Amino acid sequence: MLRRSGTLLLLVLTGCGHPDGVMMPVKLAANTPPTSKVEMLVATTREPSGDPATLFNGERSAKPHLTQITVSIPPKRESGTVQWPQQLPPDPAKEFAVTNVQQIDTIAQGRAWFGQHVNGGHALVFIHGFNNTYEDSVFRLAQIVQDSKMQATPVLFTWPSRAEITAYQYDKESTNYSRTGLEQALRTLAADPNVKDITVMAHSMGTWLAMESLRQMGIRDGHVNAKIHNVILASPDIDIQVFAKQYVEMGEPRPKFTIFVSQDDKALAVSSFITGRVSRLGAINPAEEPYRSKLEKAGITAIDLTKVKTEDGLNHGKFAESPEIVQLIGQRLMTGQTLTDSKVSLGEGITAVVGGTVTNIGTVAGAAVAAPATIIEQPLIRKKKPQQPDDTLGGDLKPQTLTQ
């Protein structure tokens, strides 16, 4: 059984390969068709690689680093996908390509860059997940910005992931290592007078880092910085009960929280198995109790993507790979718009639990979408069943003191 479980882990977590060393800037030829351009600010706690083709590796740096990067995106491409180079140097007419890299040494330089790239005063801070290289996260954010058509200045926070399927624990420890780095980045951004509001969007293991940094900020100040308006957690790889503690301990008032869940997420099923079969927040059915009532009490919007189909065999990156969902993020969630009006009409069956009400925002009836799904962890049942989550999402969702 252990051998079978280990094999399953490798099969589920193994990703598709692509060329390394794509960070070396290329010049666009005169005959290159018009391409789109995504300019971003990248903060990292990774160690510099010493190689301009990779910039940073998966080891931990004693100090954070800041870089401005421009990514060229080809004119003809399928939304929701990253066109990785087939060989180096990349062909900008067909593939993603880095066209500019510049290190930033001071906060003043970073603010000057933001001032030159301000987009309505809105900022998006994206935190990637497990098993990502520096270049993985740069190209993924460029794709999200391009496909969502968001009106915001993109900022990437990339933490030290070794990008190895056997390095799950190292990556998790690296998120803890980076908590203060992310908190400081958010504080610095919020202190910029050009910034009106911030949306924090995190994926997978990066959601743990986001929650820990926001909790840490809340413990220091009594609440999260007021400029952080929205927090979007996509496929959150977080123990549900731990998330509840993180949520209440960040204080009040809190940002608006939206979570994307999918009961067929194979990566989260494996994460649940290797962490003691503890339910992950990103794999719940939000229309079922006790989740529905707890989400309502906390004021958290949950969007169920179980019925959404993408090319991702793990069903772990639907938020970015579904054209409808990534546009929902950029056009509505980041601007604080409601999901309950008649103007929301997506091409697939998607439900949201908003204020305890199951709302259909796709084309499939809410009752059908809310039906429980079979997930990959069910064949891995042991004799001892996991404890039922009767206190899931924090019980009464109030902070607890050590003494009466």
Detailed description of the structure:
The chain is 29% helix and 21% strand. The chain has an eleven-stranded mixed sheet. Helix 3 crosses helix 11, helix 5 packs across helix 6 and helix 6 runs parallel beside helix 7. The termini are far apart.
Sheet/helix structural class? alpha/beta
Low-confidence stretches: 1-16, 363-392, 400-404
User: What is the rounded Rg?
Assistant: 21 Å
Tally of contiguous helical segments: 12
What is the residue-mean pLDDT, rounded to a whole number?
83
The largest beta-sheet arranges its strands as 3-2-1-5-4-6-7-8-9-10-11
Described by the principal axes of the CA atoms, the overall outline is globular
Amount of helix: 25-40%
Based on the model shown, name its key terms.
alpha/beta, 404 residues, 12 helices
Brief overview, please?
With 404 residues, the protein is an alpha/beta fold.
